[in-house]
Each structure stands twice: as structure tokens, then as C-alpha cells.
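Protein chain data
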Amino acid sequence: MPLEEITLRSVAERLGVSVPSLYHYVSGRADLLRLAAEESAVRMTLPEDHGQHWAVWCYEWADYVRRAFVADPALLGEFLNGAFGPEWMAGHMDTAIGVCARGGLPDRAGLEAFTLVSECALGAAISEVHFARAAADGQPTEAELRMLAYREAGELPHLHRLSVSGSLGQPSFAAGISAMLTGIAVRYGAAGGDIAALVEEAASRAPR
């Protein structure tokens, strides 16, 4: 069940038991959500390592995390409440460091890459959920921003130029990830091809 749909009553009905029966196992809805989020965290698996470029693997992980949070926005709240603890993160970090090391990056760079793309995925998910809710309420954020930039050309000259040129839209998630990973590769002197092209190709294969 999506976390947003979880209540003591809905879970009791799904299990065919009474609501009071659930109180033998959980203290309330918050406790139930915490357990559900922990179960969701366990199901969030790392990309398969089949020898792909380290940057592609990092992108695949970030895209998976982004999609998981967008699909179940309530999971974001539980993440902020600490449902995804250090024990869950440690194993994922260690695997990511190994994948990056295979590509010639030092361990520190692997940790940085995993941490940064994970944070980018979280931020992108928050933005997507926000924009989707605004659109559902009849207030599409991008359309309003375009109107504001066009109307206030003197006060917002840079946004106005972007609006007129048709470049005001949000940059793609893949573009942001590839820019970040390219920076890490340059900083640590890692070779291995055009990261932007590799990530863009991986993004084109991802489900829409």
C-alpha cells in the first residue's frame, strides 16, 4: 500500500482483523508508517553491477531513488523522520565505493559520488512532487514563472532572456547528475569517456 493510504483502519481491513488488534503490535499510525517505511527501505535495491561505467551505475541508483520517492511522496516524510538509518546507508555506500574504485576513483571520490547523487535524487523528487501538486491545484509553477519573467522583464532580466529563448524549463535530472559526476571525475583525474553522453544514453533507456 502507498504510505499515504496507510491508516490503522485500512491496514486492519486489509489483514481482516480489528483495529484494536493492531494496537498489540503498533502504538499508532506514526509507528505503522515507520515500519512501512523501513520495509520500503529494505526493498530499495542497488542497480545491478554488470560492468557498466561507474557514472552510469551512479545515475541508475539516483534515478531509482528519485522515482521511488516520487511514486510514494509519503516516503519522503518518513525519510526525514529517520526511517532510512545508517545501517541501511552503509551497505549501499560500500557497494558504490567499490563500483567507483573499479573505474579508477579513490575511495573518497566514490563516497562523494554516492552521497551527492543521492542528495540530488532527493532534491529532484521533492521538486517533482511539489510541481505535480501545484499543477493538480491549477497552479503550474513553470507557466507562472514564464508569465512573471515576461511581465517583469526590467526586474528579472536574466529570467526574461531565458523565457524568450525558450530555455526557462527545468534542466533534466540526467544533465544535473552528469555535470556533478563529471566534476568528480575531473577533480580526481579519472578517465573513461564522455560522462554526459554515457549518462544521457542510460537515461534514454530508463522507463518513462
